[in-house]
Amino acid sequence: MAAAALAAAAVGLGVARSARATTVPGRLYVSPLVIYDNAVKVRIRHNTWAQTIHYLRGAEVRYDVTNRGTRAFSLNILGSVTGRLAPGQRTSILVYWGRRGSFVFRAFPRGARLRVIVA
């Protein structure tokens, strides 16, 4: 009887350890982000660009931002700010997606939108 209880407890511990955490740190994603006059796009796969992107909660992303528009833009994503980027200028920002939800960001002034969904 005691051996059966001990075996059941050991199985329960194994299951608890194998469960995957949703906010596992240590993975850094690098994504090119391009600001155009009429769009803000992020590369999600090789040769695939999107205006709406999806991440799991806890993702840490470094965006390599390029302004390919005809005027200067600035982009603020959760407090990570590019500063004013002249046409053709590049910079990078680091963003931690720690909250679930749907977020919309706009290039300033009067620029296009970027939509991010965090699950």
Let me know the largest β-sheet: 5 strands, mixed
CATH class: Mainly Beta
Number of helices: 1
Strand content: over 45%
CATH superfamily caption = Cupredoxins -  blue copper proteins
Give the integer mean of the pLDDT values. Answer: 85
Distance between the ends: 44 Å
CATH architecture tag: Sandwich
Structure class: mainly beta
Question: How many β-strand stretches?
Answer: 10
Question: Can you give a write-up of this model?
Answer:
With 119 residues, the protein is mainly beta. It has a single domain, classed as Cupredoxins -  blue copper proteins (Immunoglobulin-like, Sandwich). The protein is built from one helix and ten strands, in the order αββββββββββ. The protein has one helix at residues 2-18; strands spanning 28-35, 40-45, 48-50, 52-55, 59-67, 76-77, 80-81, 90-97, 101-106, 113-118. The chain has a five-stranded mixed sheet with strand order 3-2-1-5-8, with no helix packed on it. The longest helix has 17 residues, at 2-18. The chain is globular and about 45 Å long. The termini are far apart.
Task: Briefly characterize the structure.
The chain is mainly beta. The chain is 14% helix and 45% strand.
